[in-house]
């Protein structure tokens, strides 16, 4: 990876287009920087992309069924209760919501991003399921639009950094599809409540976060469809929620809420309130999350959805046969299709370090239960970590067979904070979005009303140098990218 001075007018044009169109990260209350991006798209085989796009609704069907099998979730997650404090808290919430005296009336809206890598030898495999704070879909659309703009307005620069000549961009109407799915859900909940007026969408956010423009782009898409959007932190909601008639969730100053979408809640800091006196950390704001689930409102992510998309559950699903997966309502054909992508994940125990000692470390990654970047251990760091784990820690960790995609044949150009970087070994991670409400798909396949309803809702590509371990656009060394075919 080598640096290149960002002197070309095309690069500056791309940066200005990004800022003009909200493809940016907030840097202070009054300023922002463009999101990191590639100057030209990544190539994918058209048949392979079509296969992935048709398969993610099956994976979403599986995760939805797992998330609503509360006995399975409780038994499956119980072994990590002592090893991971955050998931211990989630399990306590799950027990209170689904095994307590008050019935859980929430309606699950599974707004999920399934992340894949396309291994050069074995093909695409699931890296992880993102069931909470599954963002960046709007940025996926924006970078696709940026590449289309560059192709039309700066064809020489676009061609110089394209993976092949004469490529065709794959459309990515993620904002429209995600908005369509959420809006249809909100209207259905409002209609069932007997209320009239604008449906209300509540986004639960982190205080002072920088990734706000991706969120606002989704809000704008919903506003264009007649949905009222509101943003609150967990701390604000602690004082502003109440119960209305027919178990409606009421928000102070707004009224009945139809959809709750969590862009927070995947880490302890989201539930910390220093001004509240609590018997234990995060108790009050965790109870706010429980309170929401006791009402007739569509929610993503429910606590059970968050548990169902954990690394622990992913590992257990990979260990099941296709026949065993049919217990979650899949046909044998669907279960076989899901197994194709689930890869290899192994539990960690007292023998793992000895077993791993003579294995090629480049072929594995060690994962804990954390969400977002910084929770994976690679290469020569794996064995020392395995040796350091106590017996109480084992259940919170798993070894996953690492996927090695082929890197782009031609050099690529990434642009981050105004700096253009030439990359000779660019690889990509493919995230596909789906939206389901109570298990039913809420969007049309590729936005085409002539196709069967599928729940597919666009894609997000994150590309990075093969030498970098953390590929997140927000928290790693990745850059937003788009897809093209020959």
From TrEMBL:
The keyword Cell membrane appears for this protein: no
The organism's place on the tree of life at top rank: Bacteria
Pathway: Sulfur metabolism; glutathione biosynthesis; glutathione from L-cysteine and L-glutamate: step 2/2
EC number: 6.3.2.3
UniProt domain Glutathione synthase substrate-binding: residue ranges: 200-308
InterPro entries linked to this entry: Glutathione_synthase, Glutathione_synthase_a-hlx, Glutathione_synthase_C_euk, Glutathione_synthase_N_euk, GSH-S_sub-bd_sf, GSH_synth_subst-bd, PreATP-grasp_dom_sf
EC primary class: ligase
Stretches the record annotates as Disordered: 467-486
The UniProt record lists the keyword Nucleotide-binding: yes
Keyword vocabulary terms for this entry: ATP-binding, Glutathione biosynthesis, Ligase, Magnesium, Metal-binding, Nucleotide-binding
Cofactor: Mg(2+)
PANTHER family xref list: GLUTATHIONE SYNTHETASE
Family as reported in the entry's similarity comment: Belongs to the eukaryotic GSH synthase family.
Record-given protein name: glutathione synthase
Organism: Endozoicomonas euniceicola
């Amino acid at each position: 990876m080598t640096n290149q001075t960002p002197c070309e007018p095309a690069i500056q044009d791309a940066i200005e287009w990004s800022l003009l169109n909200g493809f940016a990260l907030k840097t202070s209350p009054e300023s922002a920087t463009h999101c990191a991006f590639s100057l030209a798209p990544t190539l994918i085989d058209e048949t392979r992309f079509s296969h992935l796009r048709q398969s993610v609704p099956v994976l979403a069907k599986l995760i939805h069924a797992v998330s609503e099998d509360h006995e399975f979730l409780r038994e499956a997650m119980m072994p990590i209760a002592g090893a991971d404090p955050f998931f211990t808290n989630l399990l306590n919430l799950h027990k209170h919501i689904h095994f307590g005296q008050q019935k859980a009336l929430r309606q699950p809206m599974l707004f999920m991003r399934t992340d894949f890598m396309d291994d050069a030898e074995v093909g695409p495999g699931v890296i992880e399921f993102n069931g909470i704070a599954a963002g960046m879909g709007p940025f996926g659309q924006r970078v696709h639009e940026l590449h289309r703009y560059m192709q039309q307005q700066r064809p020489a620069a676009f061609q110089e950094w394209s993976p092949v000549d004469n490529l065709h961009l794959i459309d990515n109407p993620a904002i429209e599809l995600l908005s369509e799915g959420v809006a249809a859900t909100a209207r259905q909940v409002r209609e069932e409540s007997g209320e009239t007026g604008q449906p209300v969408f509540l986004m639960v956010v982190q205080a002072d976060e920088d990734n706000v423009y991706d969120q606002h782009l989704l809000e704008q898409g919903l506003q264009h469809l007649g949905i009222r959007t509101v943003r609150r932190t967990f701390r604000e909601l602690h004082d502003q929620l109440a119960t209305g008639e027919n178990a409606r969730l009421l928000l102070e100053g707004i009224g009945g809420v139809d959809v709750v979408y969590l862009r927070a809640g995947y880490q302890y800091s989201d539930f910390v309130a220093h001004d509240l006196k609590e018997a234990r950390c995060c108790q009050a704001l965790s109870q706010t999350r429980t309170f929401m689930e006791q009402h007739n409102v569509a929610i993503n992510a429910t606590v059970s959805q968050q548990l169902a998309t954990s690394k622990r559950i992913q590992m257990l699903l990979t260990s099941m046969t296709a026949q065993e997966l049919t217990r979650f309502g899949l046909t044998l054909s669907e279960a076989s299709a899901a197994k194709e992508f689930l890869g290899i994940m192994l539990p960690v125990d007292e023998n793992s370090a000895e077993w791993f000692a003579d294995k090629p470390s480049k072929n594995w990654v060690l994962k804990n239960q954390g969400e977002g970047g910084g929770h994976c251990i690679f290469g020569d760091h794996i064995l020392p970590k395995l040796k350091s784990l106590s017996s109480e820690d084992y259940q919170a960790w798993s070894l996953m067979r690492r996927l090695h995609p082929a890197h782009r044949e031609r050099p690529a150009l990434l642009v981050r904070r105004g700096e253009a970087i030439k990359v000779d070994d660019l690889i990509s991670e493919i995230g596909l979005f789906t939206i389901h409400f109570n298990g039913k798909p809420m969007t049309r396949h590729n936005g085409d009303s002539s196709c069967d309803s599928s729940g597919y809702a666009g894609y997000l590509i994150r590309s990075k140098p093969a030498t970098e371990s953390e590929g997140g656009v927000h928290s790693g060394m990745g850059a937003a990218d788009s897809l093209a075919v020959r």
